[in-house]
Amino acid sequence: MKANAEQTKNQTAVQTSQESAWKHVTSFAVMIVLTAIAFAAVATNLVPSHLLVPLLLTLAAVQVVVQLYTFMHLNQKGSGFPVAFMASGIFIGVISAVALMILV
Amino acid sequence: MGAGNHATATTGLPAHPEKATFEGKNKVLGFWLFLGAETVLFACLFGTYLALKNSHLGGPTTQDLFEIPLVAAATIILLTSSLTSVLAVLEMKRNHLGRMQFWFGVTVLLGLAFLGLEIYEFVHYVHEGHTFTSSAFGSAFYALVGTHGSHVLFGTVWITTLMVQAAKRGLNLDMAPKFYVASLYWHFVDVVWVFIFTVVYLMGKVG
């Protein structure tokens, strides 16, 4: 009985990770597409020049969020503290970066 | 045997082996605090770079130097290595030591390929007259991109040494958190590269 329960538990674990393997391949495809759009926007001149930098920064930000929430598993339960640490880091980082750009 | 006693080779690892022990939980939590601090470090280097990128003292500018195909190749390599390291962690959770080692091995090889491209790129720039001391742009560029490159180098050494350790000791609740945080580090290095190819190379081409 105990062995059976263990086995079922293991199978469930295997099934969940098989599902998420596909999820990860999908989010990888999303990242490649976002990257391709960014490179294409710079290479082709299709985007008006005043919109280009905001577009590139938005694409990068989206890609980082995808990476944090899928590859780095911030979507899992109990990620409160990691999210708080990264949010604080990004908050202080953005202030520092903007201040340096203005002051230097 | 301690906390790992219930998870033997025959029954396999629990669903989240990296957080199954108190030590593992703390290791992951502490590592996220470190990554928050690393974010601030890189943000400061980005701010400095953006402030100084036009101070090239008559030397080559961003538009003269950067070649998009090389950057695209480096980006694909690093993005792919991020996928292979997440696949390695999935195999670790399934208790497949061999497949985990395979995917981490691919990750390390991709990291080395990235470093090879970066070394080639830097040597090329030095021949063009773009060095660490040639201008404020040069200093800020090599400080930012070089700090990222040294993170890639550290990551490849770290993962390689863990692979050697796992080959000797096998997979257990002691090894799992080590691999998990190493893979978090690797993803973070990739996240930083996303901003480097955007802010330094693509925005540098735009002008």
UniProtKB/TrEMBL annotation, chain A:
GO terms for molecular function: cytochrome bo3 ubiquinol oxidase activity; proton transmembrane transporter activity. It is a multi-pass membrane protein. Pfam families: COX4_pro. The chain crosses the membrane at residues 21-43, 49-71, 83-103. GO terms for biological process: aerobic electron transport chain; electron transport coupled proton transport. One of its GO terms (cellular component) is cytochrome o ubiquinol oxidase complex. It comes from the Bacteria. The keyword Heme does not apply. The keyword Metal-binding does not apply. InterPro entries: Cyt_c_oxidase_su4_prok (IPR005171), Cytochrome_c_oxidase_bac_sub4 (IPR050968). Keywords: Cell membrane, Membrane, Transmembrane, Transmembrane helix. It is found in: Cell membrane. PANTHER family: CYTOCHROME BO(3) UBIQUINOL OXIDASE SUBUNIT 4 (PTHR36835). Belongs to the cytochrome c oxidase bacterial subunit 4 family. This is Cytochrome c oxidase subunit 4. It comes from Marinithermofilum abyssi. The lineage of its organism: Bacteria, Bacillati, Bacillota, Bacilli, Bacillales.
TrEMBL record, chain B:
The chain crosses the membrane at residues 29-50, 70-90, 102-120, 140-164, 184-204. GO terms for biological process: aerobic electron transport chain. The keyword Transmembrane helix applies. It is a multi-pass membrane protein. SUPFAM superfamilies: Cytochrome c oxidase subunit III-like. It comes from the Bacteria. GO terms for cellular component: plasma membrane. InterPro entries: Cyt_c/ubiquinol_Oxase_su3 (IPR024791), Cyt_c_oxidase-like_su3 (IPR000298), Cyt_c_oxidase_su3-like_sf (IPR035973), Cyt_c_oxidase_su3_a-hlx (IPR013833), Ubiquinol_oxase_su3_dom (IPR033946). Keywords: Cell membrane, Membrane, Transmembrane, Transmembrane helix. Belongs to the cytochrome c oxidase subunit 3 family. This is Cytochrome B oxidoreductase.
